[in-house]
Every structure is written in C-alpha cells, then in structure tokens.
Amino acid sequence: MCGIAGLWGASDPDKVSRMMRAMAHRGPDDEGMHHARETQGILGHKRLSIMDPSGGRQPIYNETGDKAVIANGEIYNFPGLLPNLQERHRFTTRNDSEAILHLYEDLGPAVPSQLDGMYAFLIADRKNLFAARDPIGIKPLYMGRSNGALVFASEVKALAGQCDSVEEFPPGTCFDTRTGFHTFYTIPEQLPEERPVDTILGEVRETVEKSVVKRLMSDVPVGAFLSGGLDSSIIAAVARKNLPELHTFSVGLEGSPDIEAARFVARHIDSIHHEYILTDREISRKLPEIIYFLESFDQDLVRSGIPCYFTSRLAADHVKVILTGEGADELYAGYTYYKSINDDSVLAQELRRSVASLHNINLQRVDRMTMAHSIEGRVPFLDLESIHLAQRISPRYKLYGNERVEKWVLRKAFEDLLPHEIVWRKKEQFDEGSGVATLMPTSIRQGRPSGNPAGRTGGVFVRSPEESFYLDIFNDVFEMPEVIHSTVARWSERPVLSS
C-alpha cells in the first residue's frame, strides 16, 4: 500500500515532491523517485511496507533499467505468477509489485488480464507511460493536466493546486500515452443460474472463505474491523479460523449496538479485541481532518467516515493490514431501499450498478480513512470470483420470503459459524450502529443557520444544511477546492421501476 505520483511531459521534480509530501501518510516507511529524462517524465513513490519490508523499495526496475514501475495495492496471485516469471526474469525483490513490471515486459498493455488484486500503477517505458487501475477501483488513481503535461496521483489532495483540471481515473481501465484509454473490465451482466439452494450456499461459503484467506498474504500483522454486523463478523470469523491470533477493532458510543455486538462476536471467535468509545467533542474537533483525508463533503460518506476514521486510528496501533466487510450489502441486497424493488431483473440491475459505483463512495472511504493512519484496507467480498458468483445467484435468495429478509443467502451460508443473534441481526449502517448518527454535534446535524437547507451554493448542489456545513469545511481545508469539486461522488438510491 502506497502513494504514487507521476508527471509526464514536463521535468519538475519539485512538483512531484510536493505531491508526494501531500500523501506522506500513505507511505511513511520509504520514498523514491524515477527520472525518465528522454521524455521529461518523473515517477514518485511513498511506501507503506507490506510485502518484503526490507527489500521492496520502489521504483522497481527491470533487468536492463529501461523500465520502472511504481504501484499501490496488492497482487494476491503473486505467489502463483512468480515461478513462471522467474524462468524469464531476474527478480531483485520479493515485492509483489515487481511481478507487474515483468508481466508488462512479456505482455505489454495486456498485463491487467493476468493480475488478481487491488492496484493502481504507473510504468515508465522509455518514451511511453502506461497506467492502470484495478477492475473495481479498490485502489484510487486520479489524473490531471498542468500546462499540457499529464499528472497522476493516488489522492486528489496531491493534485489540488498542482493542476488546471482533475478527474478520476476510471476503474478497470488502462492508459497508454501512445493509444489512450482502454477499458479491460466491466462487471458482467450474468443471468441467475437455477441450482439447488444447498449448492448455492456451499458456493457462497467456499468463495468467501477463499477470498478471505487470499487476503491474509502479508509480511506484517493483519487485523479486522468488527462492527458486530453480519459482514464484518463473517470476515473476522473466517480470518480467525486461519490465523493463530487475530486483533479486531470496534468504535462507538458506550452501549451502542455495534460496541455490544462486537464484544459478543469477539468472545465467540476468541479474537484479541480493541474498542474505542467516541465522544461528541472529539468528533467535532477531528471533523476538518476527517473531511480532508476523506476528500468528500457527501453527507452519507462523511457520516460513515467518522467511525471508520477512529477505527482505523485504533487499529494502527496494532496492525498494518485490516480486513473489512465492504461490498456484501451491494452483492447480496443489504440496504433497505432494495426491498422497494419488486422485479427481480430490475433488482439485479440495481445491485450491479451499486457494485460498479463503490469505487468513489464506500471504497474511497475505506481507502482514505485507513491510509490516513498508514494501514492497508482489504475487502474480501469484492474479490472478482465473489462478485461473479453473486451475479449468478437469483435475487429471490438475496431478499428472501414474504418478509424479504436481506442477505438471506449469505446469512444461511455462515449460519453455523456465528451466533444466531449475529447471523440474523438487523442491518444497521456504520454511523447508525456505532451511535455516531445520534452522537453528532448539533452544529453538524443542523448545519449553519444561514443559507438554504438544500440547493446550490458556490455552484455545488447540497442536499441539506448538514451537507452545506461539510462543504464549507471541505472548501476551507483544500487549496483550489473548485478544481476538485467534480471528483466528489454523490451516493443516491437510484429511482427504479417496480412491478
């Protein structure tokens, strides 16, 4: 996990250094810079050491030194790629990012087709630059322009004040300075397959467990967020089965549903549990910092970002890698509004849209809040095999029966692993279960007394006085905020036609 920065078409080491300093939290362990002098290109890297901590510094070069890679993320199939690549290439590190470079030497722009993981990377190839972002957009990448030069960075804050314009680099996309953008992955539109329920339950159980085990790959300690909800509890329980010990982390108001449920699950799985009790005063004091790291003023994202920020801070004292339950609600119909969709085909379309929208909403929250405290977040439910399996499961097994029980198939698949009270616990969003929704200061709930409760302010649409309050903070903490307003995604429940 790292912060990457790139400038292509200009030679300005100071600009790249400023961008790297803005992302120092993403890589406090090491840094490096590559100068592509023929093309006036510069790559900068801030490193958080996860794989090969002592020897995997970046940029990483190929054998002849004419190609260099900087990468952010993890390549989970690195152990499987290594034997074949070592027949043709000499590895100088045990870092999974080196596999990206050697695959590029063999395959050129087709390299993403061989990668299983979360990633964003830049490769300097003599006179050309190649960039790619993982299929779902788990890891971030942004692109801007400055006096005709291309500028890249892991976070918007690194580009604020450095570019004339900024846009998100699309997930599942690569870019080559010779040929432009190319989409290499979109979530497939798969029709549900009719299979026995027991078969489906077995496939869900096996796939989720494999996805968790795959994400235990690390040369540093691994832990898990534990809200006591279904999703985080499944991830933590599976991880605990496969590790000699597991640290779990929870935050909330004393007596809040998440705190109580997390304690219950931690005792059940025998994890080393840590919790932090939130206060109104601390949330108010930390809110500008949270919004700065989150890079959003969206009301829902800020609310969920608050407990995520404090849980990440707590975890950083004990681990460098954290497992989270993001993605299960979108794959298995966990949100209440899905119940208003009575047509299975429409629900399937909405679930697919929800997963495709995660990159700049919930996944942005996980990435920014964990990286704000220099830890790496991993999301097992969003393994590609897990996504493809969920696509093939009929929506009637996701919202099941007359009561339309949400995530029914996921609950049933893990019914024997967790206590009944947790498996069938009612869905609560992060800010609700942690108590943050009721703990928020009055100034945050009501917003500033002046101005309209909703509408356009400074050219930006806000939904409420609360969101206007967040926007004011956003504008205060960023240089040239108007340049990056367009990168702020807005979560919404898309209107759907129900039969």
Any descriptors?
single chain; 499 residues; alpha+beta; Glutamine Phosphoribosylpyrophosphate, subunit 1, domain 1; Rossmann fold; 2 domains; six-stranded antiparallel beta sheet; 19 helices; 36% helix; disordered C terminus
Structure explained in plain terms:
This protein is α+β, with helices and mostly antiparallel strands and 499 residues long. It folds into two domains: 2-183, Aminohydrolase, N-terminal nucleophile (Ntn) domain (Glutamine Phosphoribosylpyrophosphate, subunit 1, domain 1), CATH 3.60.20.10; 197-487, Rossmann fold, CATH 3.40.50. The protein has helices spanning 13-22, 78-86, 97-107, 197-214, 230-241, 257-269, 280-294, 299-315, 328-332, 344-356, 362-371, 384-391, 408-413, 420-423, 430-433, 436-439, 442-446, 465-477, 481-484; strands spanning 2-8, 30-36, 41-47, 60-61, 67-75, 117-125, 128-133, 142-146, 149-153, 165-168, 173-176, 180-183, 222-225, 247-252, 272-277, 321-323, 376-378, 399-400, 405-406, 455-457, 460-462. A six-stranded antiparallel sheet has the order 2-3-1-9-8-10, covered by helices on one side. A six-stranded antiparallel sheet has the order 4-5-6-7-11-12. A hairpin with a 4-residue loop joins β2 (30-36) and β3. The protein is globular, with a radius of gyration of 22 Å.
How would you summarize the topology of this molecule?
Blueprint: E1 2-8, H1 13-22, E2 30-36, E3 41-47, E4 60-61, E5 67-75, H2 78-86, H3 97-107, E6 117-125, E7 128-133, E8 142-146, E9 149-153, E10 165-168, E11 173-176, E12 180-183, H4 197-214, E13 222-225, H5 230-241, E14 247-252, H6 257-269, E15 272-277, H7 280-294, H8 299-315, E16 321-323, H9 328-332, H10 344-356, H11 362-371, E17 376-378, H12 384-391, E18 399-400, E19 405-406, H13 408-413, H14 420-423, H15 430-433, H16 436-439, H17 442-446, E20 455-457, E21 460-462, H18 465-477, H19 481-484
Parallel strand pairs: 13-14, 13-16, 14-15, 16-17
Antiparallel strand pairs: 1-3, 1-9, 2-3, 4-5, 5-6, 6-7, 7-11, 8-9, 8-10, 11-12, 18-19, 20-21
Helix pairs in contact: 2-3, 4-12, 7-8, 7-18, 8-11
